[in-house]
Amino acid sequence: MPRTPANSVLTASTPASRWLALTPSFISAGCIAVLVGYSSAVAIVYQAALAGGANPAQVSSWLWAVGIGMGVSSIGLSLYYRQPVFTAWSTPGAALLVTSLPGFTLAEAVGAFVLCSLMMVLVAVTGVVDRLLRLVPQSLAGALLAGVLLQFGLQIFQGMALQPLLVGVVCLGFLLMRQRVPRYAVAIALLIGILLSYTQGLAHWQPIRWQLAEPHWVTPTFSFAAFISVAVPLFVVTMASQNIPGLAVLRANGYNAPAAPLIATTGMTGLLLAPFGGFAFNLSAMTAAICQSDEAGGTPSQRYWATCWGGVFYLLAGLLGATLVALLQLIPAVLVATIAGLALLAPMANGLHAAMHEGGERDAALLTFLVTASGVSLLGVSSAFWGLLIGLFVFYGARWRSSKVA
Question: Where are the bilayer-spanning segments (predicted)?
Fold first, then answer.
């Protein structure tokens, strides 16, 4: 694949010296990006692994796989294109797995991960990425995303009925910090929740043995039910709500790395790591913006060092996946659920906005949202699939009727 200049106005940049990589602002930006990503979404990945029937060792393998995959792909793509390309796990995809995986074996789940990654590779190498994504209008993609995430928002208030003080204080801290330091609101809310849990006796400190995570292979099993209930919705959500915004952020900051090789790389990463729990990889938007902004320091042509450092911290987090699982097990389940819900409020709001933005598409989007949020399962197929199918039927049916009238 051809190397693309770092920026349309930065093609004349000279190679950075080895000392430039050690610039403190680059190291800081990479560290903050990983911290924000992990603190806001690791609880959702943890829940997704448990929903798939993973035991603690396999959960740590999931975290190992996503950490290694994001680290290697971020470093590799950034160095190859000399652009701050940052990858991530699919947070909405992980949220979807929490609702879609129950009822399937872990082997079937891994098979669905393989098929999802294979579809990403195929749409990239065949050059049909843009055409395929255009089949699903943004309103329906947003409705699908919001429907999947709705239960995570509701579980905040379900938890409040069980632990009103803990959940109430965490939510208040989140709202206050969101006004002042929105980038760190979730991380600060988590810290508040941990401290309050210990003071209330809901959690007890235990010595943590720092240990490296070990990958655990699960041989994939392929089933049609898992394909249409897990693989297809996971593919749609990852492409529409993660890869496209990730590309938009990259372009908005003046970088022009070609879309197809980037998406193909994330798909290949998923193919390699799916048996170990790497459920879906994609281009990052929010955390990538941290490394691409002026706050990362340097010139735009040098900021790929920030994403390289982010990749290094990803690798460290992946290698310590077992320790992360042990730490999560010390936290009350209601706190984990609350943090997951708070972390997904913004994506859910964005999904609802996209769903309702176009007046002529609201009926199709509303049906997609309601069916997906209902959690109904028909013929062994999850609500996400039926919601998207019904939404597409209504959307294209309305277009067909309009063309007949015209």
Answer: 26-50, 62-81, 101-125, 132-154, 160-177, 184-205, 217-238, 259-284, 304-327, 334-356, 376-398
